Amino acid sequence: DGLVVSEKVKSNNIDVKIPESELEAEEKGAEEERPRESDSSILDLSSDYPRDKHISIQRYLADLEKLADVREDERKPCPLCPEEKFKACYSHKLHRHLQNLHWKVSVEFEGYRMCICHLSCRPVKPNLFRDQTLSKMGAHYHCIICSATIIRRTDMIGHINRHVNKGETESRFITVRAPKSSYKVVKESATDVQVLPNHSTPQKTDSYFNPKMKLNRQLIFCALAVLAGERKPIECLDAFGATGIMGLQWAKHLRSSVKVTINDCSENSVTMIKENCHLNKMKVKLNIREEGNDEAVGNGEENSDTIEVTKMDANVVMHLRSFDFIHLDPFGTSVNYLDSAFRNVRNLGIVSLTSTDISSLYAKAQHVALRHYGCNIVRTEYYKELAARTVIAAVTRAAARCNKGIEVLLAVALEHFVLVVVRVLRGPTPADDSAKKVRYLVHCQWCEERVFQREGSMLEENPYQQLPCDCHGSMPGKTAVLLGPLWSGALFNTGFLRRMLLEAVQYGLDEAQPLLKTLVCESECTTLKHYSTHNPGDENKQEECGVYIRTPNTSAECYLVHGKRKSEEVLRGAAKRQRAEHSAEHPPFYYNIHRHSLKGMNMPKLNKFLSYMSEAGYRVSRTHFDPMGVRTNASLAQFKTVLMKYSTPTYVGAQAEGPVHLPAEIQVGEEVPAAAAIKVEEAELAEDDESGIAAMFAQSYPAHCAAD
Question: Which residues form the C2H2-type domain (predicted)?
Answer without folding.
Answer: 143-163
